[in-house]
Write a structure and sequence with these properties.
It contains 8 helices and no strands. It is about 60% helix and about 0% strand. It is globular, with a radius of gyration of 21 Å. About 10% of the residues have low confidence. Keywords: DNA-binding, Nucleus, Signal, Transcription, Transcription regulation, Zinc. It comes from Eutypa lata (strain UCR-EL1) (Grapevine dieback disease fungus).
């Protein structure tokens, strides 16, 4: 098989792995790809060199960013698969939840530190890089998924035992990650980048909105439990 064909097949494979992880996390469905039965090596920048045959792509200013984005997206998708499996799959019943959570957070931290400067988000250096912006959103999205449902000590949820309902008001990390996503979403709108953003960014924005919605619901439940007027409720003389 020609090297060009091998590179193309390797790229197609990892695109499928990325999509499988994203769809599994978004829709709560089992992964279709069993990586334990696969031995395809991670693709490399060399796998994208054949794209230079297209003059339009070869001269595009984001050409290098695109290949790096795909490679680091594939690596991030492997962490996402672990998050879904350990937090929401059968492994969530493991008694060693604290260690598992620490390992997931450390994996995300290491992934972030290994990002090349070309796709590391920095608005001051390159505020219109859609690939760096998308990866920053996804990093926060994965932090939310890894930590959601981990109530802080002494702060029981007022909304029951649901994994999602326990999360919004009890984890500072979840709240910070959600705020960061919405800040980045504001940059997308402010700079009119909606049409150039990779589609993987939008589930991250959706999850951040869910976190804020749950936080508002928990605040309302707290007011009701204390017999206070809800923040959105009019005074009696105005009702």
């Amino acid at each position: 098989m020609q090297p060009r064909d091998k590179s193309l097949l390797r790229r197609l494979w990892w695109i499928l792995v990325i999509r499988d992880a994203s769809c599994g996390a978004l829709f709560g469905r089992p992964f279709r790809i069993n990586l334990d039965l696969c031995d395809v090596e991670m693709f490399r920048p060399e796998d994208f060199q054949h794209d230079d045959c297209s003059p339009e792509f070869a001269n595009h200013p984001r050409r290098l960013h695109y290949s790096l984005y795909q490679i680091h997206m594939a690596r991030l998708s492997l962490i996402l698969r672990r998050i879904v499996g350990e937090r929401f799959g059968a492994a969530r019943r493991s008694p060693d939840t604290v260690t598992s959570l620490a390992n997931l957070n450390e994996s995300l931290r290491l992934w972030s530190t290994k990002l090349p400067p070309e796709i590391r988000w920095d608005e001051k250096l390159d505020g219109t890089n859609p690939f760096a912006l998308c990866l920053a959103i996804l990093h926060s999205h994965h932090l939310i998924l890894a930590n959601i449902g981990q109530p802080a000590a002494g702060s029981p949820s007022l909304l029951g035992d649901s994994i999602l309902c326990n999360a919004a008001g009890n984890s500072k990390l979840v709240a910070l990650a959600a705020r960061r996503i919405m800040t980045l979403a504001g940059i997308i709108v402010r700079k009119s980048m909606q049409l150039v953003m990779p589609q993987e960014a939008f589930p991250g924005i959706f999850l951040a909105e869910v976190v804020f919605l749950l936080a508002a619901a928990e605040q309302t439940a707290r007011h009701v439990a204390a017999g206070e007027r809800r923040p959105d409720q009019l005074p009696d003389h105005m009702a």
